Write the structure tokens for this entry.
Amino acid sequence: MFGNAGLKLAETHDQLKVVNDQRGCPTYTKDLAEKIIELFQTDKYGVYHLSNSGSCTWYEFAKAIFEMKGLDVTVNPCTTEEFLRPAKRPKNSEFEHMALRLNGFADMRDWGNALEDFLSIAN
């Protein structure tokens, strides 16, 4: 829902319902690309789960986006059951980032800081 589609909805609606029982790790693709390049430049091969640090629900993510953009939208939490989607979504999609830590790499920055940077360059 987010990205340009979510912002467009906020421009045409004064209230939105957003799922508040699914957690994940929002990730800025610029940060992801930089971390992948860092990994490629080593001989520390393996499986890495990468995302910005921290986690939030889709509801918390939406509220952060609208607040940072200064949009006056009421965001109402709802459950997955109230917001039916064709594909099932897991309740928890958080990454542990254990391979990064075990191999001496720093965690990626917090998703909120990454979101601020993304929104500062987005339309």
